[in-house]
Amino acid sequence: MPKIERVEITMVNLAPKTLREDAIQTFTCQETPLVTITDSDGVCGTGYCYTIGTGGPSVVALLEKSFAPALIGKDPERIGGIWHELLLQTHATSVGAITSLALAAVDTALWDMACKRAKLPLWKAVGGARESIPVYSTEGGWLQIETPALVEDALAKQAAGFGGAKYKVGHPHVATDAKRLAAVREAVGDNFDIMTDANQSFSLSESIRRAKMLEEQGIAWFEEPLKADNVTAHAELARSTSVPIAVGESIYSLSQFKEYLVHGAASIIQVDVARIGGITPWLKVAALAEAHGVVVCPHFLMELHLPLVCGINNAQWLEYIPQLDLITEHGITMKDGRAYPSDEAGLGIAWDWDAIQKNASYGAEI
């Protein structure tokens, strides 16, 4: 039986290629903690998580001081058992972002190891439901981008085969958002999905008001209109509009997703593998959503979510935001607006270790 012998922790700070502003924040830096686990058979796996500019050192400290020492000597094939043991070890700080992000880095590394040992790509290991997934773009729809540039990017994405694009909303007056979305809709026509994202910036009354405008534009979904912990308000909003309500990037536990699904407060689940704590709980959320007849369209983490959405039956879209280009040897495979997962054993991410070491802001070995 293999035993975990070594845990290496690295953090790389990646600057976004595009200025990213939404209704409540600016995405200044992607702190990317990476964890590489090696066992007594010489099998190693690498997992990771991310922040949008703050909290990365706290994640690394939890990994170095608590999780990594607890991993030494454990059987790496006990992925679910290890996940629960680490959660119990940090029960006083759960549920929360820092703990979930640290758990995700460990859990994804263990899945990488398991897939390599089994000589399977992740997308087949978790179900192999489909060989590709349609993509929609977010990079051209940030709040600070002027309307002509929104239109130009939408037409470019449409010409490249993308099936849709997402646009940030949350300008002080609803008319501003309406004009921007109308310009895009006029340019791309009816056969191109337009998604919107408010980043939790509205009250319930304002969400209902904005949803009426979105109905007129034939919007595919209204993402994070309200504070993520307000299930009751989301349920009321969902009953008041025909626009699908999307939530998930700011939810950190299976039970929180359960509340949304049981109360009919969301019809699109955007579970984020880093923020939910790894692949192990991500798959449980996806199965729970499937049981409620709800689709999964995960948030961010394009490179890791690609094999996961191709592994399950109820995925609909992959969000296209390249985030690992600076530290990988190549990006994901794309053709005609669809993304194809790697058939390499493991997560399917081609890490460029020279680039990682060159850009590392922190490193430790346990």
From TrEMBL:
Keywords: Magnesium, Metal-binding
InterPro entries from the UniProt entry: Enolase-like_C_sf, Enolase-like_N, Enolase_C-like, Mandelate_racemase_C, Mandelate_racemase_N_dom, RHMD-like
Domain (Mandelate racemase/muconate lactonizing enzyme C-terminal): residue spans on this chain: 148-244
Cofactor needs: Mg(2+)
GO biological process, one term: carbohydrate catabolic process
GO terms, molecular function: hydro-lyase activity; magnesium ion binding
Annotated PANTHER family: ENOLASE SUPERFAMILY, MANDELATE RACEMASE, MITOCHONDRIAL ENOLASE SUPERFAMILY MEMBER 1
Name of the protein described by the UniProt record: Mandelate racemase/muconate lactonizing enzyme family protein
Provenance organism: Halocynthiibacter halioticoli
